Amino acid sequence: MNYADEILQRLNVGLLVVDKELKVVFSNRWFVERCTVSWDEIEQTTISHSFPAFERKRLETALRDAIEFGISSMLSHSLHDNIFPLVNKSGEAIDHAISIQAVQSGHGWHAMIQVTDVEGCESHSHSRQYQEQTHGDPAPVVLFPVNAGPFFV
């Protein structure tokens, strides 16, 4: 395994890459370890075949937009509940959000799906609500835009 592969496998987010036919061509360890569908069932099959029960229309549209037009998308867990069948070590469903970006390789344009466990985000939200109820207005949270830049597979 080369250095770049090692980094991708050790990320604390899930990654999937699909080609122009929406076939899964890459997944990292985080996703494979949490997904209830085995890697053998996912690899080189279309996303709709691998995950028939999930909300395909919005996800497929976002994937096609990334591959055909370079448009990035974000699907939040609050509007798109459990897009993928992911569970934690206790077998409980993982609330997750996904972001989709276009990536280019020697084989043309692909879409990279980043899957983020939002459980920590909800805890932060609840702690802010508690702080508001017990101590008044919390300190402001400042968010800065992040430019992910190009990513080559």
How would you characterize this protein structure?
The two termini are 15 Å apart. The protein contains six helices and five strands. The protein is globular. It has helices at 3-10, 29-34, 39-42, 47-50, 56-69, 119-135; strands at residues 14-18, 24-27, 73-75, 96-105, 108-117. It has a five-stranded antiparallel beta sheet. It is α+β, with helices and mostly antiparallel strands and 153 residues long.
What are the SSEs and their pairings?
Elements: H1 3-10, E1 14-18, E2 24-27, H2 29-34, H3 39-42, H4 47-50, H5 56-69, E3 73-75, E4 96-105, E5 108-117, H6 119-135
In short:
By secondary structure, this protein is α+β, with helices and mostly antiparallel strands.
Instruction: Give the oligomer, counting copies of the same chain as homo and different chains as hetero.
Output: single chain
Low-pLDDT segments: 123-128, 141-153
Termini separation (Å)?
A: 15 Å
Mean pLDDT: 79
Shape from CA axes? Answer: globular
Output the radius of gyration.
Answer: 17 Å
Give the fraction of residues assigned to helices: 25-40%
| β-strand number | 5
Helix-and-strand structural type: alpha+beta
Question: Biggest sheet, in brief?
Answer: 5 strands, antiparallel
Give me some keywords for this one.
153 residues; alpha+beta; disordered C terminus
